[in-house]
Amino acid sequence: MLEKLLKWDRDTFVYLNGLGIEDYDVFWSIVTSFATWIPLFILFLILFYLKFSKKEALYKFLTVLGLAIFITLITHITKISVARLRPNNTEEINTLIRILKTPTDYSFFSGHASSSFSITMLVFLFLRHKVKWAILFFIWPILFALSRIYVGVHFPIDILVGMVVGLLSGWLFYGLYQRFIAPCSTLARP
Question: Which domain of life is it from (predicted)?
Answer without folding.
Answer: Bacteria
